[in-house]
Amino acid sequence: MLAGFFLKLKDHKIPVSIKEYLMLIEGMKKRVISPSIDEFYYLARATLVKDESNYDKFDRAFGEFFKGIEALAGATVDVPLEWLVKQVELNLSPEEKALIEALGGWEKLMEEFKKRLEEQKGRHQGGSKWIGTGGTSPFGAYGYNPEGIRIGQDRSRNRSAVKVWDAREYRNLDDSVELGTRNIKVALRRLRRFARDGAPEELDLDTTIHKTAKNAGLLDLHMRPERHNAVKVLMFLDIGGSMDDHIKLCQELFSATKTEFKHLEYYYFHNCLYDFVWKDNRRRHGERTRTWDIMHKYGHDYKLIFVGDATMSPYEVLQPGGSIEYHNEEAGAVWMQRILDVYHKAVWLNPEPEEIWPYRQSISILRDIMGGRMYPTTIEGIERAMRVLTKG
Amino acid sequence: MRFKGTANYVATDDLMLAVNAAITLERPLLVKGEPGTGKTRLAIEVSQALDLPLLEWHIKSTTKAQQGLYEYDAVSRLRDSQLGDPRVHDISNYIVKGMLWQALTADRPVVLLIDEVDKADIEFPNDLLRELDRMEFYVYETKELIQARHRPIVFITSNNEKELPDAFLRRCFFHYIRFPDKDTMERIVDVHFPGIKKMLLREALEVFFEVRDVPGMKKKPSTSELLDWLKLLLAEDISPEALRSKDRKAIIPPLHGALLKNEQDVHLFERLIFMARHNR
Fold it and tell me: Which residues does chain B have within 8 Å of residue A50's beta carbon, measured at their own beta carbons?
């Protein structure tokens, strides 16, 4: 039975391993828990789930797998139903009660109600609200509304076994789209490369011993610089136009990058890279930097990151004079190729979802120019990009 | 040995079960949660409840796994050798025991707290895999194998600043301390300030959860901040009415410095309250 549960978790893409499964069984053998499904739920969660963002997936898998078992135990609907009947009765006048009798009696009404309840569960509208909405509507049809919402609230206090995972309290923690700066930083950390430079502050034990031995045993201390993250990053950010939709994302990405790398240089461009870039958007027409100068200034050990949606007319990439900013003598593609020849480690981060890339011609063109090194701005995409940048 | 919470620590059912599972199965328990929800406190309370000594190993960004096992003080040995100290002939004189070593060789089981494991380098947890799994390690300098006389109860806390490697996670139990709801929060406050005026508490909690609900807050106030704030309120003897004053001048709650730790948050909060008042 537990093997089935284990596989169910795998189906729900929760990273579980045999080791953890054995740990769970060991825990049951050693009687860490009393035979109650609630405690089993807690134990299984503590052993099998190692990240709070997976709690919700676990709740869902658990609910699905143990659905049959709950039904056997009869803990699901019986308790609240009885309670519901009482609550409804309290709110009814004698005439209304008579009306119910006429409509087929409590039994039938409750049957209907139960059905609705089941239905709603199937669609996973967890939480305490669904009883409220589910509760009021069938009763509404019969002409009275016994304060449906109150029923829902009271029931949640009446902790039945199902409640814990059906409540799915961790719902908002499972959000693979959410991109906080911390997550980006974690992804960017892949790019760290340590090197020793700067002032010597740390005792270099090996050299000290070596030198001391050479010095006929007279102590000869040697210091060395501490390790620092020596990665150098050159960043080009697309700004304005179609990028307006992605401002928040880019800000987050940018602030994460800024704190993570000591050597970070950034410039803005619009749509595609041409002969000029700029550092300050307010003075973009006054203070511009020639792309040539950048290529000469920063050594080719810099890693290049483009951030942009690459969404534009194909002419802007392929034709001289295609830029919407000014007349460019050489096509964007030429400039892209030029800068890629200087900086071999380069990626393009694209905030547009990966699925739509094939449908936009300019994205495909730029992706080809980048040699396929275009990645979506999700955590997973950034991680892939960083892996490419660190390789070799 | 079973942990059932203590007089001054409110543990939820799932937390207690996770602790007990970790104790029975002798595996480390990894505790995550928002800052200030009592992750570090947990180890301290468990050691008190079970009456076991507590060893704390605080991790910093420069901490190496080896420092938890032992360190070989080569420099003082070199120095001693020049001074002709007889101690120099025995290398074990220069081995400094780390927290983990102390925990493994203690006369009785101990509680070992590895605090903020995510502060260290990304490889740090990987370097401790075997030590935490088998509870043994080898000292190369003296060629001895240190094995656990009693397996310590290990608590590891993390603030989620770095992801922990899978291999490490697989060896641990995991518990995420949720932010307490209002009922639990009342119990927690009750434990820390018995006899606090009901009115004041209710008003304070109201304000507290209101502040937490402000969208776009950089650092949400947490349990420990609430407790600090209540302490201040009690010390200053602020009346419950003052917390809810409709006075236009008192824009933000008194002594808000205990709750809001970021000037942008204070501005944001002021602005929101101002707008709310304005619409009234």
Answer: 30, 164, 166, 169-170, 172, 174
